[in-house]
Specification:
mainly alpha, elongated
């Protein structure tokens, strides 16, 4: 049997359905920003802004407002998207860990009948770091 608590790893079956408010907001923002129409709206804003540089070359306030707004929006979106990506990566890693641990357990069980699996089990354990999570039972 494998002990998941030894290194504090969370397995997919142990994940609760409670998602913190910020994570829900970040997911909603990522979903919103990943739509094609959002990209089209951003492109339209750039296309409207670009000629204004030629039409109003002496209006520095306008350029400052646009540059500041786009910088702030970019900064916030990057932070939100990074949160979403990190959570996605963590969920994927938890699933891969569960698969590797299940496979390692199956290999141990079948190794009695198929001795060659012991070597394969050792390679799997070394490759994915299962030795840190295996129990001494």
């Amino acid at each position: 049997m494998l002990a998941h608590e030894e290194n504090g790893a969370t397995m997919p079956s142990e994940v609760t359905s409670r998602v913190p408010l910020f994570d829900r907001f970040a997911t909603a923002a990522a979903t919103f920003a990943s739509k094609a129409w959002f990209f089209a709206a951003c492109l339209a804003m750039v296309l409207v802004w670009a000629p204004s540089v030629l039409v109003f070359p002496s209006v520095d306030t306008w350029q400052l407002v646009i540059n500041t707004a786009t910088t702030i929006v970019t900064f916030l979106l990057v932070a939100l998207l990074q949160n979403t990506q990190a959570r996605s990566d963590q969920a994927l890693q938890q699933k891969l860990n569960a698969i590797a641990e299940g496979l390692a357990g199956l290999m141990i069980t079948l190794a009695r009948d198929y001795p060659a699996l012991e070597h394969e089990h050792t390679e799997l354990v070394d490759a994915v770091g299962l030795e840190d999570r295996e129990s001494s039972d």
